[in-house]
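Database export, one record per block. Field names are fixed; values are copied verbatim from the stored entry.
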Amino acid sequence: MRTSIDKIKVSTTDFCLNQIDSFGVNSHNKQPHQPISETPCCYNANGTPIIAQNIYIHSIDTPYHLDIRTFNGMATAWLEFNPNKFPSLDTAINRISHDLKETHQFEFGFDTNKLSRVDIARDCEMDYPMVDYIQPIDMLVKARYHKDSAQYPNSILYKTTASQKCSYDKGLKNQLDAGIKNYIATNTNLMRDEIRLLSPKYINKHLGFTDLNTLLDLNESELSKLYVDSQNRFIRELQQKNTSPQIGVGDMVDLLNNLVNEGHRTKYIALQFMNITSPEGNVLMQRKQWNDAVNQWVNSQKWNTRSAKSKKIKRFNDAFDNVLRENNKYRAMLNKKSRDSINSRLNEYKSKYLVA
């Protein structure tokens, strides 16, 4: 079990820009119904205005992104980086500060700053493949989930305007990041669970501070407690906003698997799935539920080629689009399904992610 800071975004109005030769300049990114920028986004050390929408640095060797633009009438610098790409948070700040000074002649005010994003992550080796925990998490949170499978495989994401909670297969993501093809990469038991705080107000609400220096002073035990407190608070907020019960994605995957194993035709499978999971007939919701279940089920199977996997998904989706009738034959199956194994996985998740 490991708890860490996964991403930080911090801003300051206290900075010194000595030259812009090594900066990128966005001066003509015109938006609809908005004029091209004719005002300075900042000033250099000599007081000369830089006329642009914003200027930026995106460093590869020392991974960070710096963006300077006008915010609330003041020139503001935002620094974004992932501490997990460095040996420690302290090392990350020292290396970034050194690169800014030596390569770009830029002084960032680390002593006068405000956090605008903090992601805290916990990695745990689970008893089952991470995908088996989607349904228990779904049952626990009791809110509508989202997915970002392109970036986070087997993901389940809950979000508000100021915060997010995301769980995904970290081991599978590591394989994909290493260049292993998605039809060859396999599910793993390594789960990453992140709480993402996306505004200074929400950061202060959850963490009790909004400056980078306080975050830097935290020890491992204090960070772990902040992670757990933030997770539990966010889950409670979602539970209070969403009181109506919803069928979990794990139930939908089990239903799809049952229908496939019974040997039914694809159109018949799509018809049964539609009527069982969304009896109210909400077509958009039915499409999302079907798409999630199909992708989860397909990812749980072994495929000889990527083409075979893609053809299977297309075949399922084509069948779904042709379904015109309703049938409730399998509805009782969901109500009779044993919850013993689900409760076991839910209890394991709570013990590893909701306890400091």
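Remark 1: Residues 2-112 form one domain.
Remark 2: The longest strand covers residues 114-125.
End of record.
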